[in-house]
Amino acid sequence: MSETRCGFVALIGAPNAGKSTLVNALAGEKVSIVTRKAQTTRAPVRGVAMEGDAQIVLVDTPGIFAPKRRLDRAMVDAAWSGAGDADFVALLIDARKGLDDAAEAIVAALPASGAARALVLNKIDLVARERLLGLAETINARAKFADTFMVSAAGGDGVADLRRALGARMPPGPWLYPEDQVSVAPLRQMAAEITREKIFERLHDELPYQMTVETEGWTERPDGSARVEQVVYVAREGHKKIVIGEGGRNLKAIGSAARKDIAEAAGHPVHLFLFVKVRANWEDDPERYREMGLDFPKG
Predict the structure, then answer these.
(1) d(Cα 273, Cα 218) in Å, to the nearest integer?
(2) 204, part of any domain
């Protein structure tokens, strides 16, 4: 029998580089929520991909950007922490944006990370080949990468090649998770993330970024279903009205969409009950950060 291998791969990059989409593609199932809103991923999310005898634990990190608020700092700290703890780091660059200011700052900070790393140019289906080759050459001249990959996370191009290469780089060791497990997130946390995704999909830019969802109750019922109670925390009364919508229209649509995905993740029917509460300055509450899986930055 071949020797098993297992290791951690951290995917880092600027917001909207496509990290969550790539994690989902590598794992073969949905692990991270994906929306068009920047900075959707707030805390590291772990997914599991299998490649032969290798188990690859993928760490989808928050986008790295110049933080302005306490929540921003917590997210960026979590991203760099995930990179520092990984066996291998994959830097994702949106090939359409190229080496913009955000990507430039991340590349400049990379030498501080000791892990071996690869450059992954994403969204290659939207960029001319000549530009891709020039971009890869420019970035490799700025920092040392063990490999360079060109992929379309959304379209699937190059994803299998990347997974094979990552599998080959995993160190010898026992698998940490069952072979058929694709997500490491607790079900309650995943359910909260699913609802947050549906809120952004429904409301787009109507609702400010300062919103969070927590699963406050999960009760298994005798009939095999579960009663799930979640609270949507917003910062202002006006935001609450947006989430609920006229006659409760938005909240009903969000709940219906979230219930389907949560039931699929749980493997059995769920009865979802959503509540919206105003909690001003929730970003200064350490408990909210613990619920999100983030360390509370002081100062």
Answers:
(1) 10
(2) yes
What is the bridge-based pairing of β-strands 147-150 and 270-278? unpaired
Residue 179, judged by CB atoms within 10 A of its CB (0-12, 13-18, 19+), counts as exposed
CATH of the domain at 13: 3.40.50.300
Would residue 218 count as lying in a domain? yes
Q: Are residues 33 and 59 in the same domain?
A: yes
| Inter-residue contact 19 to 61 (CB < 8 Å) | yes
> In the structure encoding, which two tokens stand for residue 42, read together?
């707030």
Token output for 124: 């290659």
Each residue of 67-85: pLDDT tens digit? 888 888 988 898 888 888 8
Note whether residue 214 is domain-resident.
yes
Rg value, the chain, Cα: 20
CATH number at residue 233: 3.30.300.20
CA 118 – CA 8 distance, rounded (Å): 13
Q: Show which of 134, 169, 204 is a domain's final residue.
A: 169
- Give the tens place of pLDDT for each residue, 137-164: 999 999 989 999 999 999 999 999 999 9
Range of the domain at 257: 187-292
Cβ(86)–Cβ(59) below 8 Å = yes
Strand arrangement of the beta sheet that strand 270-278 belongs to: 211-220, 226-234, 270-278
Distance CA 298, CA 270 (A): 38
Task: Please indicate, yes or no, if residue 298 is contained in any of the structural domains.
Answer: no
Q: Is the dihedral of CA 242, 246, 248, 253 positive or negative?
A: negative
Judge if 25 and 162 occupy the same domain.
Answer: yes
Phi-psi bin for 119: left (phi > 0), alpha (psi -120 to 50), beta?
beta
